Amino acid sequence: MADKTEYRFLGGSGLKVSNICLGTMTFGDWTLLPGQCDEAASHAILDRYVELGGNFLDTADMYAEGRSEEIIGSWLEKQQREKFIVATKVRFGKGINGVGLSRHHIMQSIDDSLRRLRTDYVDLYQIHMWDEAVPIEETLSALNDLVRAGKVHYLGASNVTGWQLQKIVELSKSMGLNKWISLQVEYNLLCRGIEWELVDVCRREGIGIIPWSPLKGGLLTGKFKREDDAPEGTRIAVVTKKGMDLEGAPDFERIKKDDKTWKIIDATKNAAEAAGKTPAQVAIRWLLQKDVVSSVIIGAKSLQQLEDNMGAATGWEITEEQMAELDTVSQMEPTYPYRLLTRMNSDRVRKNMCQ
Q1: Is the pTM of this model over 0.90?
Q2: Annotated catalytic, 336?
Q3: What HEC string does 300-327 produce?
Q4: Which is catalytic among the residues 63, 125, 154, 187?
Q5: Cross-strand bridge partners of residue 89
Q6: Residue 354 in domain
Q7: 246-267, pLDDT tens digit by residue?
Q8: How many Å apart are CA 207 and CA 219, to the nearest integer?
C-alpha cells in the first residue's frame, strides 16, 4: 500500500496523513449540488480510496445537511477506527444559536457530528470560516476544551485571512492553548491569492496547508473548451445555469472571456502530455510539490475520477522546468503593499527561516 500514496506530517504535528485527502462534499443528496453520490456509491469510493493507500477523510457538518457525515459514519463503524484520520468542520447551521463559532454552537455541533460519524472523537476539528460576531477568544477556549475532553485531537482553520490566522496563532500561545496545525483553503493554478500572506504565516508557524478545489471545479481537468458550453453534469455547468456564486466553481460564461485562464489550462495540458499524465494529475501534483502543502483534498463522484486523481500521489514529479513554467503562467499580479514589500526585500530573503 505504501507505494500507492505518500504520507506526510500534518503541519508541525506528529500526525501523518496521506498526501491525497478524500473530500466528501459529494456524498449525500443535496439540493445545492445535484448529482451527488448515494450511500452505496460513496462507500465504494471510500473502499477504493483506502485500497489506494488513503487514510485522510474530510467532511463538514453542513455537507448535504449532515448526510455526508452520516454516510461516513455508517462506513466507519465497520472499519478499524484508529487507521483513519477524520476531519470535519463547524460554523454554519440554522436557528438563533445554531450557527457561528460561539461556545454554545460549538459544543452542540461536535456532539451532533460525533453522533452522525458514529465515533467517539474527531481527529481534526476545523472552523469552517471566521465568525465576526463572536470574540475569537471564546471560540479558541471552547475548542481547546474539546481537546481536553478527548472529543477532538487536533484543531485547524478554514477560509480565513492572513491576519485572522496570525491572531489565532498568537492568542493560542498567550492563552496557553493547543497549537492549531492546519489551514484548509482554496489553492490551485487558477487561485493563488493565499501566497500573498497565508502561505507565509503557515510556513513560519508550522501550519500545514490542505488545499481544496485543486481542479477549480473541473476547469483544470482538460475537458472544458473555450468555444463550447460547460459539459452537462459538471458543477460549473450547474453554477453557470443557475447563476450561483459558488467559490471553487466559477461561472463559465465569465471564464470564457479570461485569456489568462486559458493560457494556464493550455500550460497544464502541455505539462501533462510531456509527463504522460492527465491535466488533473498535473494540477494536483503542482500543489503537492509546494513545501507548505501537507495533503490535497480531492472530490470524486465516480471510481474513475478517484483513480485519476489518486494518480498524482506518488511515483513521479513535475520537472523543475515545468514547475517554473506553470508558476510563471499562473502568477498573480501583486498589489500594494505586497508588490512594494517583495521588491524592497528581494535581497533580504532567507532560504531557511531557521538560519
Answers
A1: yes
A2: no
A3: CCCHHHHHHHHCCCCCCCCCHHHHHHHH
A4: 63
A5: 126
A6: no
A7: 666 667 778 888 899 999 999 9
A8: 28
